[in-house]
């Protein structure tokens, strides 16, 4: 199907704008801070779970902490996969086109408004698609898990603060930090 040149230009401009807006989230400093932040929560969670072994909360706060730590680990994996994919894609886009190079076109080159894609690029995009869907699912589950944690802390109230102070405060801090984002 042939598209009008102006439509193709608009679609390309919209794609580039969207890509630039999402690029800041996958810049090296932001990715490093995100990984450190999530790793810190996982490390603190392990420490609190080990040091609070004697605490006996009425609600399953340990389960909530383990679930949230798992979501943090999953988020870190998804961010790393997407960061690596974007770095590979950027390095391929800036590579100059050489027509004698096994007849393969670079990702940004076009011939008669058609874009040719190698098998490696298709596999890479499908892997990235899985990571994006997994991150999307993880985000939705995190929101639901936040509601569950908020409910458990709310119904436990001050009794939890007395019987299981370390678990209570860790869940409270995690809920507060999650609600700020």
Automatic annotation (TrEMBL):
The chain crosses the membrane at residues 30-51, 63-83, 143-161. It comes from the Eukaryota. Coiled coil: none annotated. GO terms for biological process: protein ubiquitination; ubiquitin-dependent protein catabolic process. GO terms for cellular component: membrane; plant-type vacuole. GO terms for molecular function: ubiquitin protein ligase activity; zinc ion binding. It is a multi-pass membrane protein. It catalyses: S-ubiquitinyl-[E2 ubiquitin-conjugating enzyme]-L-cysteine + [acceptor protein]-L-lysine = [E2 ubiquitin-conjugating enzyme]-L-cysteine + N(6)-ubiquitinyl-[acceptor protein]-L-lysine. Keywords: Membrane, Metal-binding, Transferase, Transmembrane, Transmembrane helix, Ubl conjugation pathway, Zinc, Zinc-finger. This is RING-type E3 ubiquitin transferase. It comes from Gossypium klotzschianum. The lineage of its organism: Eukaryota, Viridiplantae, Streptophyta, Embryophyta, Tracheophyta.
């Amino acid at each position: 199907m042939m598209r009008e040149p102006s439509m193709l230009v608009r679609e390309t401009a919209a794609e580039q704008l969207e890509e630039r807006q999402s690029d800041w989230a996958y810049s090296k400093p932001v990715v490093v801070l995100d990984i450190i932040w999530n790793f810190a929560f996982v490390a603190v969670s392990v420490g609190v779970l080990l040091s609070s072994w004697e605490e006996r909360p009425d609600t399953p706060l340990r389960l909530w902490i383990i679930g949230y730590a798992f979501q943090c680990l999953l988020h870190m994996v998804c961010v790393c996969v997407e960061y690596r994919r974007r770095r590979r894609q950027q390095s391929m886009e800036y590579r100059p086109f050489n027509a004698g190079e096994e007849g393969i076109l670079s990702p940004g080159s076009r011939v008669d408004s058609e874009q040719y894609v190698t098998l490696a690029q298709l596999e890479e995009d499908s892997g990235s698609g899985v990571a994006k869907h997994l991150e999307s699912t993880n985000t939705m589950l995190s929101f639901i898990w936040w509601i569950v944690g908020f409910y458990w802390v709310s119904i436990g109230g001050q009794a939890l603060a007395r019987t299981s102070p370390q678990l209570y405060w860790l869940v409270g801090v995690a809920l507060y930090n999650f609600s700020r984002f």
